[in-house]
Amino acid sequence: MNRSPTESQAPAFAPCHPGWYRIRGADAVVLKQLEQELGLETSRLSSHGLFHHGEYSYCCLEVLQRGVESLLAQHVILAVSENALVSLEPPEGCPAFEEALRRLRRDGHDNHPFHIFAVLLQSLSDSADSLLDTLGENLWESLIQTNAVLNSLEGEKKDYGVSDVVATQIRLNSTEEILTRLMEGQMMLNRCVRHVLPRVARRQPDLLPLYQTLIADTESVEEMADFLHLRIRVLQQTNNMALSVKQNQIIKVFSIITCVFLPPLLISTYYSMNIAYMPILEWQYGEPMVMFLTLALALVPLLYVKHRGWLR
Questions:
Q1: What pairing do the DSSP bridges indicate for beta strands 20-24 and 85-89?
Q2: What pLDDT score was predicted for residue 69?
Q3: How far is residue 257 from each of residues 93, 160, 219, measured CA to CA in Å?
Q4: Rounded to an integer, what distance in angstroms lies between the CA atom of residue 220 and that of residue 45?
Q5: Angle, helices 208-271/113-152, rounded to nearest 10 degrees
Q6: Helices 162-203 + 208-271 axis angle, to 10
Q7: Helix H segments across the chain?
Q8: Sign of CA dihedral 267, 272, 275, 278
Q9: Which letter does DSSP use for residue 35 in this model?
Q10: What domains are there in the chain, each with its CATH number?
């Protein structure tokens, strides 16, 4: 039996849960079918942001979450109405939506699209919270490394070089970049909830407490991200200070070496001059006297440096 084109393409956006159409890697054909069958406005989906069109409220999101081996930066589009929720995802899918689907199936009953929409945003927020925990652990390791470098400045144990300080600074800069993108994502999540909230209030007022809780959750994650961002800034400043101190110590070592060897160098330069008559050369104690004078002039600056505490 020959099937019509619509029937053959229907599984491309068959609902994964009642009311939720989950589309992965949609091409132009699928988007056209979505526009015909569900009434989606597909011409504006490439833009980032929030807008209403017809029955649907659209949210274009840039989400950052943990993948199997690395972080995933994904572009996700959600379109929700009173009758359906459509999520457009990359071909590999969105890991947070997998968790949302498991939550919905655990409920054991059909959910309204606005309720499913809230569950999806809650899963994205929880994913961001989990990523924040990982970043916090990385910051703790950077803090331990920075404290070890600072302690080595005054201690006599393991000496940390400039490369150790630079490596910590690179990790901090990378963590700050991830955290900045995460904060932007959380701000967009909060805007998405507020964007849909007026329609929820008119059509599903019983879901308002859920949306208010979601707003509070996204704002709490934002506050945590802001706290970690301030912590990163403090560690970066401390690390820059440690780097400056390490460089100054290196310069100090070469300066002390120069001070110690400069007087003997002057004496050797003087006695190496081609002079016809030098009385001290005829004195029997001339050689010991020059050696003693050279040693004394080398020790004087060294003792002075030690007295001033510059050897610490």
A1: parallel
A2: 67
A3: 63, 21, 57
A4: 29
A5: 20
A6: 170
A7: 5-9, 28-37, 95-107, 113-152, 162-203, 208-271, 286-307
A8: positive
A9: H
A10: 7-249 (no CATH), 254-307 (1.20.58)
Whole-angstrom distance, CA of residue 247 vs CA of residue 253: 10
Place of tokens 């390490």: 246
* Residue 96 near residue 129, CB atoms below 8 Å: no
pTM (global) more than 0.70: yes
Rounded Cα distance, 223 and 16, in Å: 34
- 251-304 pLDDT, tens per residue? 888 888 887 888 888 877 877 777 777 777 777 777 788 788 888 888 887 787
Distance CA 61, CA 147 (A): 38
- Measured CA to CA in angstroms, residue 307 lies from 24, 253, 262, 301 at distances of 73, 16, 19, 10
Q: Which residue has the tokens 């401390």?
A: 238
Q: How many CB atoms lie within 10 A of CB 199?
A: 17
| Beta-carbon-side half-sphere exposure of residue 45 (alpha carbons within 13 Å) | 21
